[in-house]
Each structure stands twice: as structure tokens, then as C-alpha cells.
Amino acid sequence: MSLKFKRRAPYSIQTPLTSLIDIVFMLLIYFLLTTNFMVDEGIKIKLPQARAAAPQTQQEITVYVDQEGRAFLMDKEVPLDRLFKELKNLIGSDKNRLVVIKADRAVVLNKAVKVMDLAKAAGAGRLCLATEKGF
């Protein structure tokens, strides 16, 4: 009597992907909810509001003007008599460099215009007065 053995197919191992996908989506949601996408740290000012505000994508020089009319260049306070020289050094030979003025909405208009005049005299080709979007 001869015995014939049936040859079995090797076991195929399958990884359960459903639970793996669920975990990946949960991690994605967690990181989206806990991440701050735009962090503006620095001088506390309240920007004026505008309906047609457009975001800027180019590297710019930012000058802050607070409620008291003090000027801050790149988060450090600069007296108005030294602001011209600092801006001239930052602008250099690039006459198309964007200078953004972020003035508090409670500041006297004359002080914000004075900072804009200093930036223009320092060689800034483009000036921008920053606003918040919406009313």
C-alpha cells in the first residue's frame, strides 16, 4: 500500500493594514491639531484691519512701531536717529527689497509715516504697511 501525501501550500502571512492605517491617520490628526503653523513672536502690536490684505512670500525687512511710537527692527529696539543707518545696511545694493512697516493701530499716524520716510530714504524700493485681514 502506497501512501500519497498531499503537498500543502506554504502559509501566506498577511499584515493587517486596517489598524495600521487608522493609527497613521490618528497621528496625522494629532499633529495637525497641536502644531502652530504661523507663529509671530515679538513686539505686541494690534495691526489695522483691511479687507483686501494679501500675504507676502518674499523675504522682507520688518519694522515694528508700537503704541508709544518706538521703532523695532528685527525684534530689537532702534532709536529713530539710528534706524536710517540700520535700514541702509540691511537693504544694501538690493533696491527692490521689501520693507514691511507693522504699526500698531493706536499709534499716531505721524510716527508711522516718519518710519516709512526713513525706509524710503534708506533706499527701500518697495514699502508695505501691514494690516490684518477681515473686519
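Second entry:
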Amino acid sequence: MLTGIHHAAIIVSDYAVSRHFYTELLGLAVIAENYRADRDSWKLDLLLPDGGQVELFSFPNPPARVSRPEASGLRHLAFSVDDLDMAIARLTHAGVAVETTRVDPYTGARFTFFADPDGLPLELYETIS
């Protein structure tokens, strides 16, 4: 029945800052960018290399979401990368704090966590072909 994840939608507090973060730092391509005057809101559709998408939404004064480790709900959004060290170097060069690299005890794959401008936990997971 399900064939994959089509997109993840993220509400951001500062549209310009998050747009820069996801397009310039993470390298996601812009599919479409629309201003919705009736909502005073931007909607930015971004393309992942595998065809998946990330949608960014802005709204006036969005409430903060409780985001603590191990809280109920979405834990984090994980992106696959071919070269974890190169991805970490790019983020740290841009001033993004990245956690220490870990190893998945079940797959042996390396991964790390960092946060977007709103503190949303993101993961980089190294996939080995």
C-alpha cells in the first residue's frame, strides 16, 4: 500500500533564515516557492536527491513546540549522506553545532545529530552502497 515518504512538513519561525539553512547549507533544490497572502505565509517545496521532499511553512508568530529528547511525537528527521565526514565539515564550517559521530550498533553505519535554526533535531545517516 505505502510506497515511501513523499514529504516532511516543517513550520519555521524565521523564513529567510530557514530558507538559507535548507537550501544553502543542506543543498536542497527549490521546487516551488509561494506566498499565500490569505495566511501571511510562505510555502517552500524542496527536493531531496532521492525524490522525497521537505516543505517549509512560515506563519506569523507560530507557537514554540516542546522538543525534548525522548518526548512523544516525531523524534527527528534523518537525511542520508554518502560521506558523513564531508557533510559534517560543511556544517561546522558554516557554524552549525554537530554532535559527536556515533555508530549504529545494528547496522554499523555512522550517524550524527544537529539542529535546524528552530532547534528541530536533524540526523545525518551515512549510507554505504
